[in-house]
Specification:
The complex is a heterodimer of chains A (394) and B (93). Chain A is of the alpha/beta class and 394 residues long. Chain A is built from 16 helices and 13 strands. Chain A folds into two domains: 258 residues, 3-Layer(aba) Sandwich (Rossmann fold), CATH 3.40.50; 94 residues, Oxidized Rhodanese, domain 1 (3-Layer(aba) Sandwich), CATH 3.40.250.10. Chain A has an eight-stranded mixed beta sheet with strand order 3-2-1-4-5-6-7-8, with helices on both faces. The longest helix of chain A is centred in the middle third of the chain and has 19 residues. Chain A is elongated and about 80 Å long. The N terminus of chain A is likely disordered. Chain B has one domain: Ubiquitin-like (UB roll). Chain B is built from three helices and five strands, in the order βαβααβββ. Chain B has a five-stranded mixed beta sheet with strand order 2-1-5-3-4, covered by helices on one side. In chain B, 34% of the residues are buried. Classes of the chains: A alpha/beta (394), B alpha+beta (93). At the A-B interface, strand 5, helix 9 and strand 8 of A face strand 4 and strand 5 of B.
């Protein structure tokens, strides 16, 4: 075994594999790096997956297939139709079901021998330590900053490894936090970005297969930790660029002054992570710009009666192609330098997909002196819901 | 000293969609200054109002974090790659 392998398990209570298990895992057993000992380590291992979404899908599938003895799944969400583009543990019939339930069904069908424990709950500072306590390895497949800091801190307080993966559009990151001589998440990012600065997948989009790759890397790291084999990503930040098809690696150092895992720890209990991240109890920061609005039905009424309204669409060209209200397209980012194209004497209704970007556009234009400007409340999504169902939602 | 600065996905919208840019720079600070000079919209995402690098943005020269080198005074030489690594959280919803 390589010099810097670390194993997280001592010999566990289970010491025997059945004939059926031996056959199921034969392709593991015939490798000296795994063998009977390794397979027993997997069987004795207890892994907790935080999130059963894009990253959780390959994680659940591959850890189940590998024979991890106990898998915990934490997710309070239900399967949404838009999830099927990347969350491959679910199928079309699962839309509307709790994710933990749908994942349990799929994973048990793949491997009935493993124990699956589901927690259909939000992970909070109140429940994290108790939830994590029973497991050996925690895998972070979440999608928001407050939870990432919470998972990190809980793992450091309990002394458990945190197999981290994150994605954005077509880039991914992976590493292992929480090992005794290794860094933690706060060593890398002492502070979270202010809300609204880094878009979520719903706002930024994501190539569906990307979490498949990064989640599989996390599954691989988890298995290596359990087996105590290979070189782990401890102290190494793996960066994946899917478009360029390039892997890069950066050194992650343990910060000696880290308030969580450093020599002089100053954080001794879990905090209010939403406050820490500046998000008051909401994961997706909602625009709190107060701008004059018009509801879709009212817009329709006014257009039908022939009012002279100028529809300004502030989305991107590729969104305009999906569906549009025949508006004039000026993407939000271009508005400052194209504002001269607008006639401030006309009444303008600005819209985007959900009403958030157009609220910013209206705010900007009002500050630029436009007086007759309204934001379409709820954007083209609300128009589809309330006025014209034939307009596709995306 | 031609230094390549790699612009991560979340920040490309503020850099005219470029994924990298090259500058003649002798230090990391110089390279970032030239970068935000060319792409002014990037400045507030990388720096606070009083000119300090934001704490949720990490900068590396090749594979080393500048916080463990000489921070913005870290010297750069021809062919070095300066990477900006912001935190991303997608997992994804």
């Amino acid at each position: 075994m390589a010099a810097n392998t670390q194993t997280v398990l001592d010999k566990g209570p289970v010491t025997v594999l059945s004939n059926e298990e031996i056959l199921r895992y034969s392709r593991h057993l015939i490798m000296p790096e795994v063998g009977m000992d390794g397979q027993l380590k997997l069987k004795n291992a207890k892994v907790l997956l935080i999130g059963t979404g894009g990253l959780g899908a390959p994680l659940g599938l591959y850890l189940t297939a590998a024979g991890v003895g106990k898998l915990g799944l934490v997710d309070f969400d239900v399967v949404d139709f838009t999830n099927l583009q990347r969350q491959v543990t679910f199928d079309s019939q699962d839309v509307g079901k709790p994710k933990t339930e749908a994942a349990r069904a799929r994973l048990s069908s793949l491997n009935p021998d493993i124990e699956i424990q589901t927690f259909e709950t939000k992970l909070t500072s109140e429940n994290a330590l108790e939830l994590f306590g029973d497991f050996d390895v925690i895998v972070d497949g979440t999608d928001n900053f407050p939870t990432r800091y919470l998972v990190n801190d809980a793992c450091i307080l309990l002394g458990k490894p945190n197999v981290y993966g994150s994605i954005f559009r077509f880039e991914g990151q992976a590493t292992v936090f929480g090992m005794p001589d290794g860094p933690c998440y706060r060593c890398l990012y002492p502070e979270p970005p202010p809300p609204g600065l880094v878009p979520s997948c719903a706002e930024g989009g994501v190539l569906g297969v990307l979490p498949g790759i990064v989640g599989s890397i996390q599954a691989m790291e988890t298995i290596k930790l359990i087996l105590g084999t290979g070189d782990n990503l401890i102290g190494r930040l793996l960066l994946f660029d899917a478009l360029g098809m390039k892997f890069r690696e950066l050194k992650l150092r343990k910060n000696p002054d880290c308030p969580m895992c450093g020599k002089n720890r100053s954080i001794h209990k879990l905090i209010d992570y939403f406050e820490f991240c500046g998000v008051r109890g909401e994961e997706a920061p909602v625009s709190n710009l107060l701008v004059p609005e018009i509801a879709p039905r009212e817009l329709k009424l006014r257009l039908d009666r022939g009012d002279d309204l100028y529809i300004l669409d502030v989305r991107e060209p590729h969104e305009f192609q999906i569906c549009n209200l025949n508006g004039h397209l000026i993407p939000l980012g271009e508005l400052p330098r194209r504002v001269h194209e607008l006639d401030s004497s006309r009444e303008i209704v600005a819209h985007c997909r959900s009403g958030k970007r157009s609220a910013e556009a209206v705010d900007f234009l009002r500050k630029a002196g436009f007086r007759k400007i309204l934001n379409l409340k709820g954007g083209i999504l609300a128009w589809s819901d309330e006025v014209d169902h034939s307009v596709p939602k995306y | 000293m031609s230094v390549k600065v790699i612009i991560p996905s979340p920040l490309r919208a503020f850099a005219g969609k470029s994924d990298s840019a090259e500058f003649p720079a002798a230090t990391v600070g110089e390279a970032l200054s030239l970068l935000t000079g060319q792409f002014v919209a990037l400045r507030k995402h990388l720096f606070t109002d009083d000119g300090k690098l934001r704490s949720f943005v990490n900068v590396y020269v090749n594979d080393e974090d500048i916080r463990y080198l000489a921070k913005e005074n870290t010297p750069t030489k021809d062919g070095d790659i300066v990477s900006i690594i912001p935190s991303i959280a997608g997992g994804c919803r």
